[in-house]
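Worked Example 4.2. Consider the chain below.
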Amino acid sequence: MEIYNTFAIIIVLAALFGYINFRFLKLPNTIGIMIISTVASLLVIGVGKYDPGIFRASMYQLSQLDFHTILMKVMLSFLLFAGAIHLDIHNLRKERLPIIVFSTIGVVISTIVVGVAFYFLFQVFGLHIELLYCLLFGSLISPTDPIAVIGILKEANISKSMETKISGESLFNDGVAVVVFISIFEIIEAGPGALNAVDIGILFIKEAGGGLLFGFGLGYLGFFLLRSINNYKVEVMITLAIVMGGYLLADMLHISGPLAMVVAGLITGNKSREHGMSDVTRDYVDKFWEMLDEVLNAILFLLIGFEMLLISFTPTFLYLGLAGIVIVLGARYISVFIPIIFLKFKNAFEKNAIRMLTWGGLRGGISVALALSLPRSYHNEIFISVTYIIVLFSIIVQGLTMGKVARKLR
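Applying the procedure from the previous section yields the following structure tokens:
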């Protein structure tokens, strides 16, 4: 019953904050809700100094929720599928080479740059954290978050080609980044020399390659089922089953659920939608997933704002976070710049594409969830605090200025 009560409070607050944002702030819904929940967290902290009971009650309610499990095991599958189902695969094919390179090589470059830079930054602050742990942090902060990116791109008014590059990359690179994160985590757990390059390569191929193949099979299974009937109620349930059953099975098989959901969503949103659904079913499926996407996004960004109550902010952590903003933006620039140097001979890029892709690479809930999954012995307090500061800046500052930056760079 307590879990139900907590979720009831979350839904009420998400609806209330969504109303306040729509009525007064008029910001993109996800950003507005997160700003309001962050301000509410600060108010709770302030009031808690005079009435500790309010602070303790708020902390207790939040402690009932495992943010990492809620996002990575429950919400992420729905959000990735909902994001992919509305992407035009024809536009995606035109930009497939940049998307593949940015979401794989780009993630690896960013992981290394961030990890090495933080290794030296920690030493400046007198913190001796091993390079492998810094690389682990680099892997969790490197993916651009599809949940943050796609929601904000709707409001940014940028070119279709650039929108496809950013949204397509963000859908695939989080799955790749999770695999990189797991690989580095396994290396640390196994100890020095226990895993070699072949072991890591096999793990990567199994997780990423297995996820892509499984998503392909899942998407086509859904297509055959949807094509064989004409009943919008059952067909909506089939799309729901693809997500819930597919993600559960991917987890059991130890392959990438996020990548599977993206591929299944692309097939469902294009082939199944075009050749396996009637007009009535298409309308219901679109509205169902659009509504579910909006509700889950509102809950997610509400929780990100309230996570501030559970995070330690010392002056050192604050300085590290502010420095981290610069490092992550610099790493994003490098991870985009290097691939474009080679890709520009085969693909056309818009003027100032590097700067737009750098500023459009928002970090979000996935980074926070991965940071929260770290054991205490992995310097989790430092990494969680720094991650949170970077994510706040990314969503609020970068998210709110994407449209202006795009117009200025044209």
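The chain has a mean pLDDT of 91. The chain has 17 helices and no strands. Compare this with Example 4.1 before moving on.
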